[in-house]
């Protein structure tokens, strides 16, 4: 982390504990990012996820193009957890949805393939849970 990083803390009300707890933190590396290509760390209770992509903010949505994802190798992020995390971010950024256009895969399953477009809708009402899965 660098001192020039910009931090945006996202909060959600947990069904346990006392009130509002920091659950997810987005760290934008402004010193090494160049609009529209932004580098973020997403800090969760499970671990760190790194995002790199071209971000376009609309009036009610966020479009991310050429998204690259990296993170803690020990954490099994899984599709379900990534979707939930995206919905929490959409809710906290106050957008109706996030549209993701992934970059051509360099590792993992099917290298050389571009994933399909994914649209993550913001929950219609706050989702509170005692489980720590970003619900």
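Q: What amino acid sequence fits the structure above?
A:
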């Amino acid at each position: 982390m660098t001192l020039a990083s910009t931090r945006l803390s996202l909060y959600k009300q947990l069904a346990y504990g006392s009130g509002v707890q920091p659950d997810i933190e987005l760290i934008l590396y402004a010193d090494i990012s160049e609009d529209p290509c932004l580098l973020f760390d997403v800090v969760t209770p499970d671990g760190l996820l790194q995002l790199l992509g071209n971000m376009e903010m609309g009036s009610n949505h966020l479009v991310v193009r050429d998204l690259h994802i990296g993170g803690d190798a020990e954490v099994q992020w899984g599709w379900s957890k990534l979707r939930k995390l995206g919905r929490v971010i959409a809710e906290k950024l106050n957008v109706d949805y996030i549209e993701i256009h992934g970059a051509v895969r360099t590792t993992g399953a099917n290298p050389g393939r571009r994933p399909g477009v994914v649209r993550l809708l913001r929950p219609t009402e706050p989702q509170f849970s005692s489980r720590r899965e970003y619900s």
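Q: And what stands out in the fold?
A: Helices lie at 78-92.
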